[in-house]
Amino acid sequence: MFFNARILQQPLTGVGRYLNEVLAAWPGEPPARIDPPRRAIRGLKGHAWEQLVLPARVGRDLLWSPVHSGPLAVANQVVTVHDLVPLDHPEWLNRGFARWYGFMLPRLVRRARHVIAISEFTRHRLLETTGIPDSKVTVIHNGVGAGFRPPPPAERRRMRESLNLNDTRYLLSVGTLEPRKNLAVLIDAWSKALPRLPDDLELVIAGAPGRASVFAGARLDDLPPRVRLAGRVTDEMLPALYAEAEWFVYLSLYEGFGLPPLEAMACGTPAIVSDIPVFGEVTGGAAMTVDPDNRNAVADTLAVAARDSARRKILAERGLQQAAGFDWHETARLTRAVLERFG
Length: 343
Description:
The chain is 42% helix and 14% strand. By secondary structure, it is of the alpha/beta class. α6 (153-162) packs across α8, α7 (183-193) packs across α11 (295-307) and α9 crosses α12.
């Protein structure tokens, strides 16, 4: 049994982080990894290695492709699908990337022996867009890392000193400059809400873990008052950044799972999320929801949340309970069980 380790040779992203967490929590010895040579990691060379070289390396053994990309020539394969953005919203992606994954992904899941979806929402979209039978898909949720918990005071102080947030009350958002993260709506709604917000409250926007600054290359001269750009935040510092926030705000338009709200909830911070189906599944009613396309509704939600300490306390407690149900060890155990069933 092998797994396709191509993603681990690339800069860390959400799906790479998923694989690292699952492998670290794996019960016993994980499948053997197959890596491409470094000269064939990305772009056309990476695709060529995956489609032409990897099948010969696997032979007749079972292959696990953990990030919805794998060789079409290998039928003895289990594929993990994180989202269907190339099929649902190709306009958000590089044209070449969207064309390739729009072509490859449906064929891959139809040919594979089994598919793991990271949410019921992703499973539902798989069934609708590819026509594969329900019996071919197993839902295995992502987990929340052990480091995401209410941190001790010393960690909180170090984070505040490092990011110059010593006396700052803030709402927090974590995201990258891609259309589905919807940061433009959040910033506009913040501007609309400002007259109704406490005078000492700021909006802090941080880059995703392991990624460059969220506003790299973007215009900064038209940001409204009291918006602070934290840039890149390390994984070690992120729990304290979550925990010290009054609320965590995540207005994404589309997610296959949506881990940041759960991480914030695990750190004791209540969340405001988009009213998209996957967040109903993941947050389990332990978060405030809002239409992410309605800027006035978002502004109203921010204004109400900022002054509602009772609701904040209730949702913080519910969020801790909800997040406790998502564990990477369980994700790894269930993934291993699926692979053993077919291997």
